[in-house]
# Entry
Amino acid sequence: MAEFADVIIDISHEKVDRPFQYRIPRRLQEVLCVGCQVEVPFGMGNHIRRGFVVGVSDRAEYAIEKIKEIAGILEGSVSAESQLIQVAWWMKERYGSTMNQALKTVLPVKQQVKPQKKQWVFCLVGQDELAALVQEAVKKKYRARERLLRAFFETNGIPLGLLANQMNISRSTIKPLEEKGILLVDARPLARNPAEVYVEKGKRRQTGEGLVLNPQQQRVVSQIQKEYGEGIRKTYLIHGITGSGKTEIYMELIDYVRSQGKQIILLIPEIALTYQTVMRFCRRFGSQVSFINSRLSAGERYEQFERAKKGEIPIMIGPRSALFTPFRNLGLIIIDEEHEGAYKSEITPRYHAREVALYRASLSGASVVLGSATPSLESYQKAMHGIYSYFKINRRAKKNSVLPRIQVVDMRRELQEGNRSIFSRSLAAMIDERLGRKEQVMLFLNRRGYSRFLSCRNCGEAIKCPHCDVTLTLHREMGQENQLICHYCGYRIPRPKLCPSCASPYLAPFGTGTQKVETMVREVFPDARVLRMDLDTTAKKGGHEEIISAFGAHEADILIGTQMIVKGHDFPAVTLVGILAADLSLYASDYQCSERTFQLLTQAAGRAGRDERQGDVIIQTYSPKHYCIEAAAAQDYERFFKRELEYRRLLHYPPVCTMMTLLVGSGEEAFVDAAAGKAYQQITAWERAAKTRGELQVIGPVNAPVYKLNDIYRKIIYMKSENYAILIQIRTRTEEMLNAANVDGQLTIQFDFC
Ligand code: ADP
Ligand code: ZN
Ligand code: ZN
# Structure
């Protein structure tokens, strides 16, 4: 029986960020466990403080007489889940953070929310009348009303919170319909049977939406279920092309695991948490399922987590933070689009949801299912090595839906042959044809704004942000190209008339952004109805949903956008996707740019021809022979993987090794230089002393890709090793050294893994 406990005191100060050892009084020895919240005497005055038990042992680490005794276990408080505390501890160790930061990440902040009855909105009219009302809303361009009414084609009752959070529909939209007796807002208790709320529609079966899984889907489901039934827990990778029916597979698996009395977490990228997705899961699982997204307040999140803890809901869907849902009996974690960058946290602890999911699953005896059309190199390699079980599906699920035809257009040739437009001749011809057939088109360009930058034809200078090492982007406001905006810090100035360097008036815009594409489309196709979706048009609340639903309702022929438009949306009438500048992300300065470009191109291409009509994709590029473009055009993941892995091997990049970065920043250039130089010297000195040569590669210090950001100068040191432990050691020691040198807080120090 354990006699000692490691206790973390719950105060945010770096110096107390370590466990203190306490003796466990005999009376508590049987009840105390990792994760318990306890009261302990602390510091000189032995004031009683609260803390968390993060470990137990039967060995004293100090002289026994110096070890204090735990005063008691806190009861009736919101006790932290022991598993989550273990997860926090693991995250702290792996990603480098204080235990407090890790705990704050995994434990929901307790927030008192007023106990209130959940309000629901019910539809009181039949489907025919509803259809007429939708038509009327369309005619009057009442977008929100239309969205609201359409939702009742699926169900006759929707929680008010769902309408507000996922669909951005306010009470003012509901009110007039309520007054006319079309809708009814009513409170009903939470624990009502979902079947009462979600009316059965004719074709829907109890278990699904009337779909019968196809053999490919069934094979995946059967094998995972079979192994699950045998008590086997492991990680699966489902590599299924876009539209291959992965979501249907997830739903079957969720149903199965739920029937085993266990709980499920499904992670999806925030951007895919649209109303369509939410409704799909609501239809299937009713009030068994809860959703979180980043727009929820801390209180609302806490409330959802509490419901999960009490066992009121067995299924949680959300972005990466849903991983910390305090389920007691977690049986399955699914990560959709597992390759997505959004699964990596950009705040300390800088964890990757996939890694944390695997750890949490190992603690609770859960299986993990990863799904993607373009798996990350890491996951695919693990699958090839048999560490994950691998399933490949390369057919679309819907009958008669086939993958699109893909054509690569060399834009250098276009220019040589006299076409200076941003549309190649084949793209322009195809757009024309689709408009004639009343089909929809998506145009993808991974850069927002009007033009890329403004540059002087006299002195050659481009106008830059005074706070960051990037050029300002030209934006168009009120029909005028009159704003220069920094995409990194938000700095903005009116467009200058004269060059700030040489006062010449010959300033000309270069490059193209989504705004300019919109202008060009309107010029070349004056009859087309056009929508644009990027950070600028979705900035206002609900902008995103509004554009999606308008395009989905065929209120526009062409949707122009940044990567926002390529992820996960299902628009059946889209039969042409144009990728305007495929190389745009290809020559970024990090080693993952090919992988990201390949993913983006594949996802974008996957938007075409989701229904029965044959889809076409045109990839416009200046580097048609690049392996990444070639592989994407051939829709050949394996070919891409082989080439990319060769390249990573050659240059020794992940997944061949682990790469850790140290970013040092300061407002004073001299401080950054000195600190980065010193860190480099220390690291290489340790390396020599520890004879880790060959096991550790140190590169740098080099300027960060954007050297000056928000007036902070930043330098990076890269450390690569196949031995994770070495990197952790280096991190701990370097951090200590730099912290000691950083007495006046002039430096920012940040470690990260990529
Ligand atoms: P993914 O998640 O792989 O992109 P989805 O699960 O969203 O694929 O399925 C794509 C489309 O195919 C959806 O409209 C879905 O309803 C449909 N679908 C999926 N499975 C089947 C099936 N077995 N039979 C018919 N249609 C299906
Ligand atoms: Zn000039
Ligand atoms: Zn800036």
